């Protein structure tokens, strides 16, 4: 065992420990501790990526205890896990840095340690989701994600946030229940919870044709459960409220990280437990494609209809989740690759939109309606520019990562049967057009010469600006470094099987 | 013949029926307290299912004596039992959070009906905005 | 009809808890006139609208339930038969837990070996789920009465002194319950029991004491600081000791933890200390939940 192979284990344990530590520290201390731990996790992830991202490197497993899997628990890290281990702490750190004012102001201040404690738990859960090799461990940490994300919504003590939190909890519990039943049934058929052993047993079952019916039901249960939790259309009804009524950092974390954790788990289940052939056999891929197509259009239409700035960003998440699921539905190989790529791009872009959007809102006097936001970007040109970068990326304009993921999706669609390819391309074009419509409209409003002197220029916090800058840099890097990034993703996905 | 299997797997079948009832109550009942009851139903049903998976007719609970003299073949499967233990803690935690959220919502809106709560929250939000303008 | 049921439920809820009835009073006194107005507007509107939609809604519910159940039952018919020792779940994994659990883990309770030694990572996650929930409930309910509008009402309602019978009963019962809970925790590696169940029993004793002697007296014994300190130390101990065990295990380093003599109270390595840590966390959390639900304060 090489020393750096301890990094995944240490980052998970450090986050769990920090959750307890943050809960007893005073607000300032908790803030510093939380940021420090996230920074450490980010550094660890970067180191891991530098080692595991090299061409030809192999993934490794790490025994959680004295017993080898399948008896003990184990975690596993490859190129893709390393990439995500950079993404998750990085985005959360940016969200906490940039969203700090809303956390430490007024009545909220005394509750900040608890908020950070929940963030640490969420981080531990996200990392475990990426690293864990065991389906039941994934379930346990999935529930940590569900609960901590719900608490992050209701941290904002408003009526809106409480109601949104309840709707979020109800639908997410349905999702957890379906997922757990799927895992339990899977265990009954195979006697395993470890992904590798499950894969072997399921391939054997598929070869004999035994339990075909149950397997189809299990795949459907797990898919629907995780789709509900990641807000895929038509299970998205909880998402727009939940993504737009919390404090800015909660909004950013929920829409850009939590939903990604569930999608990642679904991808792992497809790639490492069932195998794509078995998914094809169950025809769940058609279901995903239809939902993804509908979501891409419907989410954008709803974003156009809404008259509120934050809700528009939240609705666009529904459309963007559709893109990621489109990639998964297009299947192993190019489809997964596009899905992971868009997952990365969307995480950075959506966090950037929420965080810089919040600064613009503050410049406009805290209002959320488009009419009041006129000219907000002129008051804060830097944040205006950053917001524009995020919007460009989601539209898919050149020099942003969004273009690459759309090209990947389109290219992959062409390799499918003509009807699928045709519909996918048409939906992609239409959805892009709709994206252009509402993002362009918002940008025009933001940059229009608004009411002069209606509110003072706010002070720019260097940390918050740096955090948003980092996210924007991530978006640009995903365009200019697309080739190496794609190689890492391809390597990581090839290590899955 | 199929029904015979269903009869043999009657514990699983009962668990599935409970699961369906719980799921529907959680999803479609508008009363928050009943939703939580539905959630408990759903989770308990899954635990019942798990417990039945590990059962082997005629075998006993997996507790050895100090000398280790009992045969391993006389025990039921310990894995589902362990999973149920973990699951119960998760279920208790979720129930507590749901109940506390319900208390807050009831104090704020004086109703337990989720549809009304969502409606009232929306109206409250709009009024807030009018006040802002 | 369904509406009536909803009403009944909310009514019984109000009757059962003093806090809720206080809130109801707040409602009647129309502290928050805006909500009160909307509430009334709703009840007239709902009478017409709900009567129409109720039938359809119920039919939909039944339809969904029956649909889900039928599909899943259709799947159950395709599952391995109940209670056979030839089922796929009876494989080498379970076999090793049963056959070698005693030597490898040291606990005669083989399930305890499995959850606290073989698959300890799951259980570490599990105790953190509980911690997540405790933090969430704390965020939601702590200091609620000072935050919400009915501050004056909260101050105006002193705690009624508990019944003497309850107090005498609690005095006799609390030590016994605590002791029993402790026994369940300490017996966790030897027989049925463990941290979660024992902690829940101990939490029940604390709740009973609080009910009998009032939250103020209980506050001397068990304040928010106590709660925070115990949770912190127990969770930190849990995470650190498991980190040590995982680290030595994965790196194949010698570990100072030995399994001891099976059947002895001080045996089974980390299982007993972990059960104690979990017991403390669960006890505090259960009591904390109760206190927060009752008064919004621990």
Protein architecture, described:
The complex is a heterotrimer of chains A (497), B (133) and C (298). Chain A has 497 residues and is mainly α. Chain A has helices at residues 7-24, 27-52, 79-98, 100-104, 112-131, 135-154, 159-190, 195-208, 212-229, 239-244, 248-274, 276-282, 284-305, 309-330, 334-363, 376-379, 381-395, 401-414, 418-447, 462-480, 482-496, and strands at 60-64, 73-77. Helices cover 77% and strands 2% of the residues of chain A. The radius of gyration of chain A is 22 Å and the shape is globular. With 133 residues, chain B is an all-alpha fold. In chain B, α1 packs across α2 (10-28), α2 packs antiparallel against α3 and α3 (32-54) runs antiparallel to α4. The model of chain B has no long low-confidence stretch (mean pLDDT 87). Helices cover 76% and strands 0% of the residues of chain C. In chain C, 42% of the residues are buried. Classes of the chains: A mainly alpha (497), B mainly alpha (133), C mainly alpha (298). Chains in contact: A-B, A-C, B-C. The interface between B and C is large, with 77 and 79 residues.
């Amino acid at each position: 065992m090489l020393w750096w192979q301890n990094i995944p284990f240490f980052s998970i344990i450090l986050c769990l420990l920090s959750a307890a530590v943050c809960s007893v520290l005073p607000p300032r201390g908790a803030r510093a501790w939380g940021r420090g731990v996230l920074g450490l996790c980010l550094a660890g992830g970067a180191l891991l990526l530098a080692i595991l991202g090299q061409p030809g490197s192999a993934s490794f497993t790490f025994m959680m205890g004295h017993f080898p899997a399948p008896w003990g628990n184990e975690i596993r890290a490859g190129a893709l896990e390393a990439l995500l281990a950079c993404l998750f702490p990085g985005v959360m750190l940016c969200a906490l840095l940039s969203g700090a004012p809303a956390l430490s102001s007024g009545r909220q201040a005394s509750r900040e340690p608890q908020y950070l404690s929940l963030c640490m738990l969420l981080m531990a859960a996200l990392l475990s989701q990426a690293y864990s090799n065991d389906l039941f461990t994934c379930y346990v940490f999935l529930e940590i994600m569900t609960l901590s994300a719900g608490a992050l919504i209701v941290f904002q003590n408003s009526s809106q946030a409480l109601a949104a939190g309840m709707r979020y909890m109800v639908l997410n519990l349905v999702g957890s229940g379906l997922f757990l039943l799927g895992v339990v049934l899977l265990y009954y058929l195979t006697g395993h919870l470890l992904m590798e052993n499950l894969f072997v047993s399921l391939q054997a079952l598929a070869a004999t044709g035994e339990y075909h019916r149950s397997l189809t039901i299990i795949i459907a249960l797990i898919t629907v459960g995780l789709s509900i939790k990641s807000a895929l259309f038509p299970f998205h009804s909880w998402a727009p409220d939940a993504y737009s009524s919390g404090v800015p950092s909660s909004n950013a974390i929920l829409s850009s990280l939590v939903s990604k954790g569930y999608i990642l788990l679904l991808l792992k289940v497809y790639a490492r437990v069932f195998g794509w052939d078995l998914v094809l056999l169950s025809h769940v891929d058609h279901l995903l494609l239809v939902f993804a197509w509908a979501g891409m259009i419907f989410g954008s239409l709803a974003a156009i209809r809404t008259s509120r700035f934050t809700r528009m960003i939240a609705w666009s998440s529904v459309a963007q989740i559709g893109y990621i699921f489109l990639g998964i539905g297009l299947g192993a190989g190019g489809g997964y690759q596009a899905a992971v790529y868009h997952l990365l791009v969307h995480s950075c872009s959506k966090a950037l939109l929420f965080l810089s959007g919040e600064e613009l809102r503050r410049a406009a006097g805290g209002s959320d309606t488009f009419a009041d936001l006129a000219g907000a970007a002129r008051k804060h040109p830097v944040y205006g520019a950053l917001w524009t970068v995020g919007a460009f990326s989601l539209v898919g304009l050149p020099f942003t990562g969004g273009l690459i993921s759309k090209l990947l999706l389109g290219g992959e669609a062409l390799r499918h049967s003509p009807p699928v390819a045709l519909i996918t391309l048409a939906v992609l074009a239409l959805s892009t057009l709709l994206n252009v419509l509402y993002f362009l409209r918002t940008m025009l409003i933001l940059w229009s010469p608004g009411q002069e002197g209606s509110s003072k220029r706010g002070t720019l916090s260097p940390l918050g600006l740096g955090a948003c800058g980092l996210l924007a840099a991530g978006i640009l890097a995903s365009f200019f470094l697309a080739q190496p990034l794609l190689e890492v993703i391809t390597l990581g996905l090839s290590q899955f099987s | 013949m199929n029904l015979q299997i269903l009869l043999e797997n009657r514990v699983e079948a009962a668990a599935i029926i409970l699961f369906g009832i719980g799921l529907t109550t959680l999803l479609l009942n508008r009363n928050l307290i009943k939703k939580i009851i539905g959630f408990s139903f759903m989770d308990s049903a899954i635990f019942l299912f798990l417990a039945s998976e590990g059962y082997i007719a005629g075998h006993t609970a997996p507790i050895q004596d100090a000398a280790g003299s009992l045969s391993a073949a006389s025990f039921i499967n310990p894995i589902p039992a362990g999973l149920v233990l973990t699951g119960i803690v998760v279920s208790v935690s979720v129930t507590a959070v749901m109940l506390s959220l319900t208390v807050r919502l009831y104090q704020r809106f004086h109703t337990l009906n989720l549809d009304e709560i969502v409606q009232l929250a929306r109206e409250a939000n709009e009024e807030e905005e009018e006040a802002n303008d | 009809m369904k509406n009536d049921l909803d009403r009944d439920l909310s009514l019984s809820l109000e009757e059962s808890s003093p806090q809720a009835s206080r809130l109801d009073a707040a409602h009647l006194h129309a502290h928050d006139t805006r909500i009160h107005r909307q509430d009334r507007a709703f009840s007239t509107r709902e009478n017409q609208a709900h009567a129409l939609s109720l039938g359809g809604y119920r039919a939909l519910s039944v339809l969904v339930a029956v649909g889900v159940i039928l599909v899943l039952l259709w799947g159950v018919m395709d599952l391995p038969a109940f209670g056979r020792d030839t089922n796929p779940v009876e494989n080498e994994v379970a076999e090793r837990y049963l056959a070698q659990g005693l030597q490898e883990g040291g606990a005669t309770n083989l399930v305890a070996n499995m959850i606290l030694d073989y698959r300890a990572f799951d259980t570490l996650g599990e105790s953190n789920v509980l911690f997540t929930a405790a933090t969430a409930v704390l965020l939601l309910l702590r200091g609620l009465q000072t935050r919400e509008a009915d501050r004056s009402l909260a101050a105006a309602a002193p705690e009624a002194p508990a019944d003497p019978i309850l107090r005498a009963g609690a005095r006799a019962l609390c030590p016994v319950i605590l002791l029993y809970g402790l026994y369940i925790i300490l017996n966790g590696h030897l027989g049925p029991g463990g941290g979660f169940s024992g902690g829940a029993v101990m939490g029940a004793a604390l709740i009973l004491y609080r009910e009998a002697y009032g939250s103020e007296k209980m506050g001397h014994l068990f304040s928010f600081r106590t709660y925070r300190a115990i949770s912190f130390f127990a969770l930190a101990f849990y995470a650190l000791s498991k980190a040590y065990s995982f680290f030595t295990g994965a790196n194949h380093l010698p570990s100072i933890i030995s399994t001891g003599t099976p059947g002895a109270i001080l045996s089974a390595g980390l299982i007993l200390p972990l059960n104690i840590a979990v017991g403390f966390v669960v006890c505090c959390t259960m009591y904390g939940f109760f206190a927060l639900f009752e008064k919004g304060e621990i």
